[in-house]
Amino acid sequence: MAHKITSITIRNFKSIISETFPLSDFTATVGANNAGKSNILHAAKWLLRKASLGSEYFHDVANPVIVEGKIEGIDQALLQTLAANHRASVSQYLDNETLYIRRVQNIPGDGVANIKLFVKNTAAQNPADEWANNPAGIDNAISSIFPEPIFIGAMENSEEDVSKQKAGTTIGKLLAEIIEPIEQQHGATVNQALQGLKDLLDADGHTRAPELINFDQAVNPKIDNFFPNVSVKIHVPTPEIKEVFKQGTIKVYEPNFATGREVGSLGHGAQRAIQMALIRHLADNKRAAANQGARTLLLIDEPELYLHPQAIEIVRESLKTLSQHGYQVLFTTHSPLMVTTDDILNTLIITKVHPAGTQKRQTLSQAITQVIQDNPSQINLMFTLTNSAQILFADKIILVEGTTEDRLFPKVFEALNGRSLGYHKYALINQRSVSNTRKCFSVLGALGLPTKAIVDLDYAFTLATDDGFLQQNDPDITACKVFFQQIAAANNITLNANNLPQKNPQVSASRAYEILAQHAPAQTHIDNLFQKLLLHNIWVWKNGAIEVHFGLAAKTEAAWANYANQLKTQPLTQVITDHVGVSALITWLTQ
User: One short Pfam family name for this protein (predicted)?
Assistant: First the structure.
């Protein structure tokens, strides 16, 4: 198993007062704007590479900034790849292949030399000795395990990053890496060429250009009139090989353009795509050049920025691949395309609430494990909830069942409300089966997500009692069972041992509940069941199912498409059969 930082604890860093964030090989962080997601990335970078932090990095300037990391997977195979001195520095502090480190800066603007890296000594008997202060060589030893992190911010200038040679830009890092091998391979040839230029243009050159000599000879008599015994020579400095590379940039070539174009002539999406490609290449170079046991921490703020949806998927897959081959990836995102069903369980949902500051919710995986003890149910619920990445980007959840809800409910909601579900920060989660309703409520509640459910009428009679929302001997259910016995024969309804409908060749169970809803004596009891479940944030389709209330004759793609068109072209009171009831549902959801 590759080593990685499995958790990072951050204190007093910008908006993060005190919080611990679990990390995996590939960790996405999601949350509202200004929740503090980027601060996690900056803190992770600072943990591995110290730099003096200004006052803007301190949540409270009266207290130190502290960032701790838990590094797991430092096994013997990894230790053997380290230099002997680094191996010795790390080994003495290992606890079951785990190393705990802590970086501290006490005051804003403190000198780099005063920023200490502590290592936890789990064997220490005295609590005062638990953290060893800056053991000799530990910073370099950590660097041999985690080389310099690669960080790219969301709002950084992509054009400058890929086209301007500066120490901190991606192109600058790439060019800096290729200077040394070029010097080694072609240094003599390049220096000879540069020496020729120096002889030609330098004031003391051995074979100066005649034009320069002529200029010197023409101007010096005039200077002598003002300053006797003083002369001048034109001097054109010749750069060293490193200075030549400082002018390096990127040119973009396309089939329809005979010459290369500047990166700035491209759109933001193309610039961002080139930036992502160069970052990956830089990561590959660093990995190849570094200790083969080392792992690079790749930190990217909104990698999807400016990219086409298909390009976003390519970036996601590239980052996923890197996370499996020598890199640990931590990124922020606002795009569901950056988070697949495999990654939802470990995605960090970040919030910021005054006065607690930036915090995390439980991950979906943690919430499911906490709420549900038996493994088969965990797997079933994970499949249900990970089918929609929207769960990560919403403030509230609506649980539904069935494809009609998927296809039409968002459209009906917007038609009646004038605003979309997204505007109200709702995510629509299709359970496919209402058997998970209670568990979904519990898990989503553990995540801090307010949840409401919309269910068919049969749920009130079959699963609501099992889920604990209704009593087993509920009098309204008992009364309706009597009505089922009374209407069964006349309507070809087959009843099971509990006097509830079961399907037969003539009448489905769902149709039987629709027939019950039309039976006048049963309607008061159905209303009672509706009100009882409403107390648990569950809305029951009192007429049986969504299709009856909407006025749909079929559950086909053609029927759904036709209905969606009618919502746009006809009065809603004519399109939606139960206009009053559906409108009441929309009002309930937005309260």
Answer: OLD-like_TOPRIM
Residues 6+ apart with CB under 8 A from 104: 64, 65, 66, 115, 116, 118
Query: Do both 402 and 345 map to the same domain?
Result: no
Other beta carbons within 10 angstroms of residue 143's beta carbon come to 16
| Average pLDDT of the residues in 83-109 | 93
Q: What is the pLDDT of residue 535?
A: 98
Q: What are phi and psi of 120, to 5 degrees?
A: -75, 130
Average pLDDT along the chain: 88
User: Cα(425)–Cα(395) distance, rounded to whole angstroms?
Assistant: 5
| Domain count along the chain | 3
Please compute the mean of the pLDDT values over residues 501-522 and round it to a whole number. 96
Sole residue written with tokens 């919710």: 361
Q: Examine the domain organization and report whether 397 and 521 are in the same domain.
A: yes
Task: Give residue 166's pLDDT.
Answer: 61
Question: Per the domain annotation, does 319 fall within a domain?
Answer: yes
CA distance 4 to 295: 8
Q: What is the pLDDT of residues 456-479, one digit of tens each?
A: 999 999 999 999 999 989 999 999
- Do 115 and 184 fall within a single domain? no
Phi and psi of 329, rounded to 5°?
-110, 130
Q: Where are the beta strands (DSSP E) in 237-290?
A: 251-252, 261-262
Q: How far apart are CA 130 and CA 110, in angstroms?
A: 24
DSSP state of 58: B
Same domain? 36 vs 169: no
**CB neighbours of 5 closer than 8 A, spacing ≥ 6?**
23, 44, 69, 70, 71, 146, 297, 328
- pLDDT, one tens digit per residue, over 57-69 is 999 999 999 999 9
Indicate the Cα dihedral angle 568, 570, 576, 580, nearest 10°. 100
Same domain, 443 and 576: yes
The rounded Cα 487 to chain-centroid distance in angstroms is: 55
Q: Are residues 471 and 507 in the same domain?
A: yes
Tell me which of 108-112, 214-218, 367-371 is least confident.
367-371
Q: Where residue 317 sits, what CATH number does that domain have?
A: 3.40.50.300
Instruction: Specify whether 336 is located in the same domain as 371.
Output: no
**Residue 123 has which token pair?**
């064997």
Contact 132, 121 (CB under 8 A): yes
**Residue 72, domain member (yes or no):** yes
Q: What angle do CA 176, 149, 23 make, to 5 degrees?
A: 160
pLDDT surpassing 90 at residue 32: no
> Which residues form the domain of 198?
165-248
Query: What pLDDT band is residue 156 in, cutting at 50, 70 and 90?
Result: low
* pLDDT given for residue 171 in this prediction: 61
Both 340 and 377 in a single domain?
A: no
Residue 526's pLDDT band, with cuts at 50, 70 and 90, is very high
The model's pTM: 0.79
Residue 282 lies in a domain: no
- Closest to 494 (Cα-Cα) out of 469, 472, 511: 511
Contact 372, 436 (CB under 8 A): no
Residue type, 313: E
* Within a domain: 425: yes
